[in-house]
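can u do me a favor
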C-alpha cells in the first residue's frame, strides 16, 4: 500500500515485507475487519478438556481459555468459551456459541442457535422454531447425519461453505425466501420440502 501525491510514502518505513503482505491478505480473506478488530481466538491453543457435568460459567472467565466438553450437553444458556463438544448438544431456547467449531455427536436446538464458527457436526443437526432474519452458519462445511429445519421462518438461509450433508436434508413447515449454499455438492439421503 502506498500513498499518492506529495505526502510521505506509506508505510513510513518503506515497502511492507512479503510476509506482512501475506498476513494482511489472510486477515482480509477471513472477513475482517467486521467490528474493527479481530477477536481473540480462544480455540487457537489446545482447549481445556472438562466433563459435561463439570461445566460452569466460571470456567469461561479467562478470555484465553477454550473448552472441549466430554459428554452430552443439555442447556438453556450460551456457551461462550466452548470450542468442541465430544457428544450431543441439546439446546432449549435461544443460545449463542461464538467459538464452537466441532460437535462429534448431534445438535438439537429449539429456538435461535447462533454459532458462526461451527464447521463440523459428526451427527445430525435439527433446528426448530427460529424466526431470525437470517440463519447464518458461515463456517459450517459438513453435517454427517441428517439436517432438519422445522418451523423455521427466516428471510435467508446462508450456509456459504456447506459442501455435504451425509443424510437427509429436510425443510419441514419452514419458510425462507432464499437458500444460499453455493458449495453444497452432496446430500446422502433425500432433499425434502414438507408442510403439514
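np, heres the sequence
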Amino acid at each position: 500500500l502506498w500513498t499518492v501525491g506529495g505526502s510521505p510514502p506509506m508505510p513510513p518505513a518503506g515497502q511492507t515485507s512479503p510476509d506482512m503482505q501475506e498476513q494482511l491478505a489472510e486477515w482480509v480473506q477471513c472477513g475482517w475487519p467486521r467490528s474493527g478488530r479481530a477477536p481473540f481466538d480462544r480455540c487457537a491453543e489446545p482447549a481445556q478438556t472438562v466433563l459435561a457435568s463439570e461445566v460452569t460459567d466460571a470456567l469461561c472467565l479467562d478470555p484465553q481459555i477454550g473448552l472441549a466438553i466430554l459428554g452430552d450437553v443439555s442447556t438453556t444458556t450460551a456457551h461462550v468459551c466452548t470450542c468442541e463438544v465430544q457428544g450431543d448438544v441439546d439446546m432449549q431456547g435461544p443460545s449463542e456459541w461464538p467459538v464452537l467449531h466441532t460437535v462429534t455427536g448431534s445438535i438439537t436446538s429449539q429456538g435461535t442457535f447462533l454459532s458462526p464458527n461451527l464447521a463440523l457436526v459428526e451427527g445430525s443437526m435439527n433446528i426448530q422454531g427460529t424466526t431470525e432474519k437470517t440463519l447464518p452458519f458461515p463456517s459450517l462445511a459438513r453435517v454427517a447425519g441428517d439436517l432438519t429445519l422445522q418451523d423455521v421462518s427466516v428471510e435467508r438461509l446462508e450456509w456459504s461453505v456447506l459442501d455435504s450433508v451425509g443424510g437427509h436434508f429436510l425443510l419441514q413447515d419452514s419458510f425462507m425466501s432464499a437458500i444460499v449454499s453455493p458449495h453444497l455438492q452432496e446430500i446422502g439421503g433425500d432433499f425434502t420440502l414438507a408442510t403439514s
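The two ends are 57 Å apart (CA to CA). hope that helps!!
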